[in-house]
Amino acid sequence: MPSPQKTTSAHEYGPVVPPTRRDEVAAAGSELIGGPIGRWARPGGSALTPVRVVALVAIGMFALGMVQKLPCYNWAWFRGTSSQYTHACYSDIPHLFIGRGFADGLIPYFDRLSGDMEYLEYPVLTGLFMQVASWLSSPFDGGMQYREQMYWMVNAGMLMVCTVVLVVCVARTHRRRPWDALLVALAPALALTATINWDLLAVALTAAAMLMWSRGRALAFGLLLGLATAAKLYPVLLLGPLLVLCWRAWKWRAFGTALLGTAGSWLVVNVPVMLLAPEGWKKFYTFSQERSVDFGSFWLIITQRTGENIEVSAVNTYAILLMLIACAGIAALGLMAPRRPRFAQLAFLVVAAFILTNKVYSPQYVLWLIPLAALARPRWRDFLIWQGCEVMYFLGIWMYLAYTTSGNKQGLPTEGYQFAIALHLAGTLFLCAMIVWDALLPERDVVRRDGMDDPSGGVLDGAKDVFVVGQAAHPPQHAAHTAQRPRVEWGAAGAPRE
Question: By CB atoms within 10 Å of each CB, which of 13, 282, 352, 378 scores lowest?
Answer without folding.
Answer: 13
